[in-house]
Write a structure and sequence with these properties.
This protein is α/β, with parallel strands linked by helices. 38% of the residues lie in helices and 24% in strands.
Length: 331
């Protein structure tokens, strides 16, 4: 049995998988609120209790290996993130679960590892493009934070390299983006890309555009301002939300285009994360692709890069599960 998970700042998606040859079959899965738990061990323990309660044959839950995609930086078996309320320590969990094999990955690394396992129904093309054979690919995902990963061809298969573009400085392109940067510099010590291109960026842009317009979620601790703004923007029930969604999408498109240039991802760009799934209709209009291509002399090159949205939100968990299986088979 393989235990796997996608551990994010807002939600954690955990699952148990049975090995059938070189393929994994999901047997139990739950989506849990990350901040309902005081630590990673407690989160996993509650999940396993739910799994045993739901399974009439508890013996089948013997775990051989585990893999987790976690939002943030992973180094020396430990995870560090501003977006999680606690630290993930693989060695401590291995001790508690009596496991020798726990794979702890950045969540974008896990997503990148899942791409070969996804079906055509798990992807929606924003630009079919003309992929270059065995060329570099790249993954970018906006959610509680902003993550990136790079896939490069080693002559035999794709290998994954980590990236940390979320903490890079936000670089404005237009006069309005310059004004947004000036506005946020008063509030934040560091205006990184993920301070804007993440869930919390929607409210910041909304307040920048028109601070006099407020919504219910703004005044509630349980409220999800990003969800309310994006939904109002999609159904066009609030003009400021419509403008906010459009502005955010343009910035995200430009940032994605810059990432494609920096990595020369001529094999394709994959847009993942919960926000992309929720605002898919907006990503499919011209604004995202226009900003992606930009106005540089390499705009025609960018226009040929395939762009796909990963609509299977289990992708990071699947990537972590298969990485755990691979490690187990090599042990």
């Amino acid at each position: 049995m393989i235990l796997a998970g996608d551990v994010g700042g807002t939600k954690s998606n955990l699952g148990l998988f049975l090995q059938e040859g070189l393929v994994l079959r999901s047997v139990f899965q739950r989506r849990l609120a990350t901040r309902d738990y005081t630590g990673f061990d407690e989160l996993v323990e509650d999940f396993l209790k739910q799994a045993k309660a739901a399974d009439v044959n508890a013996d089948r839950l013997a775990i051989d290996a585990a893999g987790f995609g976690v939002a943030g930086v992973v180094a020396d078996g430990r995870h560090y993130s501003e977006n999680l309320p606690w630290v993930v320590d693989a060695s401590e969990l291995a001790r508690k679960l009596n496991l020798k094999n726990i794979q702890l990955l950045n969540d974008l690394t896990a997503t990148a590892l899942s791409l070969e396992r996804l079906s055509v129904n798990d992807l929606v093309a924003l630009n079919p493009g003309t992929p270059e054979r065995n060329a570099t690919r790249a993954v970018i995902a906006a959610g509680t934070g902003l993550g990136e990963a790079i896939l490069f061809w080693d002559g035999d298969k794709y290998q994954v390299a980590r990236a940390e573009g979320g903490q890079a400085d936000f670089a404005p392109r237009t006069e309005r983006e310059i004004q947004l940067l000036s506005h946020l510099r008063v509030q934040l010590p560091h205006v990184s890309c993920e301070e804007i291109v993440s869930g919390r960026g929607f409210r910041r842009i909304h307040q920048f555009l028109n601070p006099s317009v407020r919504h219910v979620s703004f005044d509630s601790r349980e409220g999800n301002a990003a969800s309310e703004i994006t939904q109002r923007g999609l159904v066009q029930s609030c003009t400021v939300c419509v403008e906010t969604l459009g502005f955010w999408t343009e910035i995200f498109g430009a940032l994605t285009g810059n990432f494609a240039l920096q990595t020369m991802a001529l094999g394709g760009i994959y847009v993942a994360g919960g926000i992309a799934v929720r605002i898919l209709p907006k990503l499919q209009d011209a604004a995202f692709f226009k900003s992606f291509c930009g106005t540089s002399k390499l705009a025609p090159v960018l226009a040929r890069i395939p762009i796909s949205v990963v609509v299977n939100e289990d992708a990071p968990m699947l990537g972590a599960a298969y990485q755990a299986l691979s490690s187990q088979l090599q042990a």
